[in-house]
Automatic annotation (TrEMBL):
Superkingdom of origin: Bacteria
This protein's name: Multicopper oxidase domain-containing protein
Taxonomic lineage: Bacteria, Bacillati, Bacillota, Clostridia, Eubacteriales
A Pfam family annotated for this UniProt entry: Cu-oxidase_2
InterPro entries, alphabetized: Cu-oxidase_C, Cupredoxin
Domain Plastocyanin-like positions: 58-156
Length: 173
């Protein structure tokens, strides 16, 4: 299994309670999953990204590429929202390092950690290796807002910037 995960063959699914058990559960308007991963991919020189097809090392001891849902910026999919929508983002870290994640333009509530309910507020979270953190917020600040890992090297592809663990929250009026 670890060989499959090291090659990116991983995903997530969400199991909601049966409808009659959802009485006190508020379902968000949009529910996003951001799977955080890192890769050690052989490149001849730091600061350059060479085109081609590369096989990641099985263990990411010296990671140089960082992804959200298997894509590095600028190829990450944006998260779309509109005024007043309740948004849930589920961060899942399947890498051997922690990743601190920040959403610009919005504060949020941490509603669950590893499936256990929480209620605390923040604008940056540290998603440890193997951890799952769910956050919620109401979209109320128009614009295009970065969602990114805060570690500078994690915002690159092999040291080339911009890249890595960055996506966007796009607020449509």
């Amino acid at each position: 299994m670890e060989m499959q995960v090291a090659q990116g063959l991983i995903g997530a699914f969400v199991v909601l309670p049966e409808e009659n058990n959802r009485m006190n559960m508020e379902i968000p308007y949009r529910d996003y999953i951001l799977l955080l991963q890192q890769w050690e991919i052989q490149q001849p020189k730091l600061g350059k990204v060479y085109p081609g097809v590369y096989k990641p090392e099985m263990f990411d001891r010296n990671p140089n590429f960082f992804t959200i849902n298997g894509k590095a910026f600028p190829d990450t999919a944006p998260l779309n929202t509109a005024c007043g929508e309740k948004i849930r983002i589920r961060f899942i870290n399947k890498s051997s390092s922690s990743h601190s994640m920040h959403i610009h333009g919005h504060d949020f509530a941490i509603v669950a950690v590893d499936g256990f309910p929480r209620k605390e507020f923040d604008d940056t979270i540290n998603v440890a290796s193997g951890r799952r953190i769910e956050i919620e917020f109401t979209s109320n600040n128009s614009g295009i807002w970065p969602i990114n890992g805060t570690k500078t090297f994690h915002q690159t592809n092999n040291g080339e910037s911009p890249g890595g663990m960055i996506t966007r929250l796009i607020y449509n009026k």
